[in-house]
């Protein structure tokens, strides 16, 4: 027999939102970045970056190598301190928050790191349970069932005992995703979730991210080079270029944007650098500047 | 969050209400495993649950497994659409015995 929902036909969000800022259109803002400036040494890396992440949206951050994507992501996670600017996550300014408050906010994050960041000495089940061990004191049975539920979600059911070294690239990405969602995060961060995977496996990961968002209403921030993936999953795309936000807009608007730098990125063309033949020859031969 | 245990006809009805999250799912787990002790069928009434997270659903899985092992019926009644979608992701909708209402679950038991 079909289960009959009892609630109103209008689907209610799975969780009452935290008191958070609202944007001009009235949508709930889960991350708010204003005029973020950051340096590595003397070099300015992010230049007045401002952006919002809305509740329930998938925001994809794109940009060429070295444009500052990972740096921005690390700021959103509170792992780096900016030179100036404001970063509010779930209504809290994470640059002025105490470590205990940061821990509280991070409990609502899930992060799937680029390389998976699995512990090689732990099997798959233990790796996926790890956040539960760190952040809760649930019964071990409960933790195991929670981890196995997420393993089923990412199609890794039954592989409890495999060690990370025994996993394929696609399995590692899916394991990282399972671990990132094991605590039912409000915000999921993914760094290159499908890079380096064959197209079918990559498409599966895209579908998975969409299904997860649809079922849970969480917000997702994805850093990716994969255009096809970005176009498929993104509600909005943020294009970074040399530390600046070129545009942040819905997918169709970004695709139609006439800015040459954006089109180059979308067409995988690298910008032709100005070449000074004399200087280049000196670089090649290791000669000093005259 | 509260768990209200009451006898109704041949069954024990465990009515959960409020948010079932990391903080209180251990209490839900204990209450359900306790409710199963006397061998009567258990109906978990979820109609007053505003939110249930994975730890809450995991507690339902454990109780369901314990019920099966001892040959007792355990049914979920009034699963919200949001909770159902999360269950569907992990294909738990194919595992649990889900009924629209407590009355419907009682009617099934009466057959
Ligand atoms: N720890 C560091 N110390 C000094 N400079 C750094 C450091 N990390 C990154 N950078 C510099 O900051 C700039 C932005 O780097 P970032 O890693 O954010 O780029 P990215 O967009 O993630 O690139 P990729 O696509 O290659 O991963 C680069 O010029 C890089 O050289
Ligand atoms: Mg990077």
UniProtKB/TrEMBL annotation, chain A:
Domain of life (superkingdom): Bacteria
Alphabetical UniProt keywords: ATP-binding, Nucleotide-binding, Transport
GO molecular function: ATP binding; ATP hydrolysis activity
Designated name of the protein: Methionine ABC transporter ATP-binding protein
SMART domains referenced in this protein's UniProt entry, alphabetically: AAA
Tagged with keyword Transport: yes
Domain ABC transporter: 31-267
InterPro entries xref list: AAA+_ATPase, ABC_transporter-like_ATP-bd, ABC_transporter-like_CS, P-loop_NTPase
Record region (Disordered): 1-24
TrEMBL record, chain B:
Domain of life: Bacteria
Pfam families the UniProt entry points to: STAS
SUPFAM superfamilies for this protein: SpoIIaa-like
Gene Ontology MF annotations: anti-sigma factor antagonist activity
Domain STAS: 1-109
CDD domains, sorted: STAS_anti-anti-sigma_factors
Coiled coil: none
InterPro entries linked: Anti-sigma_ant, STAS_dom, STAS_dom_sf
Family: Belongs to the anti-sigma-factor antagonist family.
Protein name: Anti-sigma factor antagonist
Organism of provenance: Caenispirillum salinarum AK4
Lineage, uppermost ranks: Bacteria, Pseudomonadati, Pseudomonadota, Alphaproteobacteria, Rhodospirillales
């Amino acid at each position: 027999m079909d289960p009959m929902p009892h609630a109103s036909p209008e689907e209610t969000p799975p969780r009452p939102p935290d008191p958070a800022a609202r944007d001009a259109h009235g949508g709930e803002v889960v991350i708010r970045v204003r005029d973020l400036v950051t340096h590595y040494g003397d070099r300015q890396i992010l230049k007045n970056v401002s952006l919002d992440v809305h509740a329930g949206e998938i925001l994809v951050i794109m940009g060429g190598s070295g444009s500052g994507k990972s740096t921005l992501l690390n700021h959103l996670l509170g792992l780096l301190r900016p030179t100036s600017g404001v970063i509010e996550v779930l209504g809290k300014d994470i640059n002025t928050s105490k470590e205990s408050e940061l821990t509280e906010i991070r409990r609502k994050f899930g992060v799937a790191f680029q390389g998976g960041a699995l512990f090689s000495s732990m099997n798959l089940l233990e790796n996926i349970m790890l956040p539960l061990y760190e952040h809760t004191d649930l019964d071990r049975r409960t933790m195991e069932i929670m981890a196995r539920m997420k393993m089923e979600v990412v199609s890794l059911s039954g592989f409890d005992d495999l060690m990370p070294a025994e996993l394929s690239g696609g399995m590692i990405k899916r394991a990282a995703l399972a671990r990132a969602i094991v605590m039912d995060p409000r915000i999921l961060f993914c760094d290159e979730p499908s890079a380096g995977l064959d197209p079918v496996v990559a498409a599966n990961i895209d579908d998975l991210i969409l299904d997860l968002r649809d079922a849970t209403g969480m917000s997702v921030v994805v850093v990716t080079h994969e255009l096809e993936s970005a176009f498929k999953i993104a509600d909005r795309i943020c294009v970074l270029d040399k530390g600046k936000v070129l545009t942040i807009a819905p997918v169709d608007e970004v695709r139609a944007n006439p800015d040459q730098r954006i089109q180059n990125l979308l067409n995988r063309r690298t910008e032709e650098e100005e070449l000074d033949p004399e200087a280049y020859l000196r670089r090649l031969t290791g000669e000093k500047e005259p | 969050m509260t768990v209200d245990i009451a006898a109704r006809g041949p069954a024990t009805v465990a009515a959960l209400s409020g948010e079932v999250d990391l903080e209180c799912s251990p209490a839900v787990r204990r209450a359900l495993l306790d409710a199963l002790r006397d061998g009567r069928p258990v109906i978990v009434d979820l109609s007053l649950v505003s939110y249930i997270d994975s730890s809450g659903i995991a507690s339902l899985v454990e109780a369901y497994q314990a019920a099966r092992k001892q040959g007792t019926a355990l049914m979920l009644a009034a699963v919200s659409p949001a909770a159902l979608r999360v269950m569907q992701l992990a294909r738990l909708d194919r595992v649990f015995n889900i009924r629209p209402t407590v009355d419907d679950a009682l009617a099934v038991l009466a057959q």
